[in-house]
Amino acid sequence: MGSDVSPNIRRIINITACVISAMSLMAVLACALVLVPLLRDREARFKTSGITRTVTHILIATLLHGTLMAIVNTTWVVNVTALNLPGPRIFFAVAGYLLPIWLFMSNIRLGLERLWLVQYSQNLPSAFVYSIYGVGLSWSGFFVAAFALLNDAPDWVYWPFSIPGSTNPLVNILFETGMSIFPASCIAIAAIYIRIYLVTASILSAARSDILESSSQCSASSNCSIECSKQKTYMAVATTVKQQQTVLIRCAMMAVGILVLYVPTIIFVMVRVSVAPGAEELEDSSAWVFVLLNILPALDILYTPLLILWFQPEIRWLFADFLMNLL
């Protein structure tokens, strides 16, 4: 998308770009504040916790993604023609997909790490970790090829995602093949967290059955009172219900960020390339699409560090201790 846009569209895009740049810088600061204490404590945690290593990957990818979004959006406002230079355009375009792929792959790894802890009480084997990132790196090659073969400048309508804006069938096929990793990742993440919930529910159900059986035996014994049996039964059921609810909320929330904040933009980009390759920018009447589809991914880079602090008590304690020492 070049500079030949209507004044109304240009004004809306400039305002959106400034908002995204500000949000991105805030997210970069938030990620840095969480990363610093985490990296300082890495010797104690990295060797034992696969989840901590994965969370660190997510934070670093989010920090770099926020930095990229701030640079691209600021460049758009200050000097849009810089986005159309051959070198920067390929770098920004490919990085705009490589970093989200890193985030998606890390979320898959995080889900598998949790599944392995729940089901096998151990960290995810290294072979799975290398395979996950290997798939992501391989799929990034489709974006490199698509934008490298592009003769014209890409369409910068949707930050951080750019579109080839080409009628060349090969370019669009490569691009759409690369884009397929995102819906596949969403399905994988959803399936993993559903599996975590089912496994956890099965374990808790078995534990509750054992407790109820023990409680029944206790009530039949002359050494235990009926009140003791009722209390144990009540506590077992209450704990089971609470734990199941907690697991369900965590599973749902881990997927919400990607499904709500990334998928709409990804779907729109895929549909546009499929239905109208090489199409011109949107009309004034559809200006709201610019705002919605660009703000949503930007929200994720703020959402991610807050979500990690919420769901990771140890990281939250490190963060709080780090802030206390700063004051």
Written overview of the protein:
The protein is mainly alpha-helical. The chain has eleven helices and no strands. Helix 3 (50-79) runs antiparallel to helix 4 (86-120). The protein is globular, with a radius of gyration of 24 Å.
The count of helical stretches stands at: 11
First-last Cα distance: 46 Å
Output the structural class: mainly alpha
Largest sheet: none
**Residue share in helix:** over 70%
Gyration radius, to the nearest Å?
24 Å
Instruction: Give the SSE order as H and E letters.
Output: HHHHHHHHHHH
The fraction of residues assigned to DSSP E strands is: under 5%
Task: Tell me the overall shape.
Answer: globular
Mean pLDDT: 78
**pLDDT below 50 for ≥5 consecutive residues: which ranges?**
none
Q: How many beta-strand segments? A: 0
Quick overview of this protein structure:
The chain has 327 residues and is mainly α. 81% of the residues lie in helices and 0% in strands.
What's the topology here?
Elements: H1 7-40, H2 42-45, H3 50-79, H4 86-120, H5 126-148, H6 169-179, H7 181-220, H8 226-261, H9 263-275, H10 287-311, H11 313-326
Helix pairs in contact: 1-3, 1-10, 1-11, 3-4, 3-10, 4-5, 4-7, 5-6, 7-8, 8-10, 10-11
